[in-house]
């Protein structure tokens, strides 16, 4: 077995820097994580690397959708007249306009979403509207998704842990990530 060195395990070497406060060339002013902070960060990263793919697998299996497409359908289902301006929909679904455009094209082909231009209010916008078939698709997939969310997260945590997780998520989102994916204007057309 090879010994653990900076060459074979850079993350172990970095932890050594954090533990011993040794400055690394090129990064002398980096406030390295403490052992406890590293443990918490790694737990969060492990969750972020395993939970989304598990939820995505269920949505793909039950509905032939990916998680982003599911969130597009869900956001439209909650909107007034089941219609949103694409820029607002992109924010709500947490994706770029380009990614949303590709998803809406696929959802349009399946008959679950309709896209239309709107010039009301003096500007030109493109909107997406959830079709009755799209609502039916969402209603088909949602029960399995809710069961999976419960199985993987809600039922695993005590109520106070779930509340603390939500509080922590909101605090992180309110930091440097604030404004990313927020907001929704009312549909005028």
TrEMBL record:
Gene Ontology MF, one: DNA-binding transcription factor activity
Domain HTH marR-type: 37-174
Domain of life: Bacteria
Disordered, as annotated region: 1-27
GO biological process, one term: response to stress
Name of the molecule in the record: MarR family transcriptional regulator
Species lineage: Bacteria, Bacillati, Actinomycetota, Actinomycetes, Motilibacterales
């Amino acid at each position: 077995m090879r010994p653990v060195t900076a060459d074979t395990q850079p993350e172990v070497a970095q932890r050594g820097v954090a533990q011993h406060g040794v400055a690394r060339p090129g990064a002398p002013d980096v406030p390295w994580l403490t052992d406890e902070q590293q443990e918490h960060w790694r737990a969060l990263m492990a969750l972020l690397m395993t939970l989304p793919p598990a939820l995505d697998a269920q949505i793909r299996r039950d509905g032939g959708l990916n998680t982003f497409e599911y969130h597009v359908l869900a956001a439209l289902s909650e909107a007034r007249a089941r219609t949103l301006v694409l820029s607002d929909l992109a924010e709500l679904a947490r994706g770029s306009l380009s990614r949303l455009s590709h998803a809406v094209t696929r959802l349009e082909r399946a008959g679950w979403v309709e896209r239309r231009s709107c010039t009301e209010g003096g500007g030109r916008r493109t909107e997406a509207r959830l079709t009755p078939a799209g609502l039916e698709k969402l209603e088909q997939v949602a029960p399995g998704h809710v069961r999976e969310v419960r199985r993987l997260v809600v039922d695993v945590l005590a109520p106070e842990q779930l509340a603390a997780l939500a509080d922590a998520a909101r605090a992180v989102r309110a930091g440097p990530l604030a404004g990313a994916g927020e907001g929704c204007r009312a549909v005028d057309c």
